[in-house]
Structure formats: structure tokens, C-alpha cells
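User: Show me a protein chain along with its predicted structure.
Assistant: Here is one chain, sequence first, then C-alpha cells.
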Amino acid sequence: MSLSVKGTLTRKLEIESGTSKAGNEWKKQSFLIDTGNQYNPEICFQLFGEDKIDMLNHHDEGSKVEVSFNLSSREYNGRYFHNIDAWRIESIEKSEEKSEDIPEFNSSADDEDDLPF
């Protein structure tokens, strides 16, 4: 299953870093996308690792993007926590935006009405 969402990159949060229990260094960065939906329009995604964080550096706040992501949940002390981990961020071209806003109708006067009623 492939999950993706389109929206406007509204905010890049600070890079967080630390050391795991195994002694490995880690980095993560979160960012917000505004989908334009009426209810709950903002989604906060996470990027883990420098290679994933570098993807975000190619996009400016205010730009239109499509984000591909994975959802995961884990239980801790009887509560569930969810992650939205982005694995691809692509720019949406201006021409693509316009074609999404304008519905296409393919109709001509020669078309027969094939409705059964």
C-alpha cells in the first residue's frame, strides 16, 4: 500500500539528535504540510537519518509538495503512539496544480446518450 498526500510545506522544525541505548548516533527532523482540508489540515511528518533530512533541504517553506510516507504504531505502558515517517518528498509542478483545479469534460454534440432510461 502506498500512502501519499499533497499540500504546502508550511514549516520545518529544528533537527533533533541523540544517542541510542546501543550507542548509535541518530538525527530526526519534523516538518508540517498544510493539506487545505477544512478539518485538521496540518500533518506533521518525521524524517530519520541524514539522507532523509537532506530531502527536505531541497524544498522551501511555502512550496507545493507531495509526500510519500509510512504509518506505524507502537504500544508503551498501555498507550499507543503513532509515527508518520516520510520517505519521499517531491515538488508539485505549477502546470500539474492547474490541471488538478480544472475539471476535464470530454463531450461533443455527436455523442449518443447511452443511458437506459
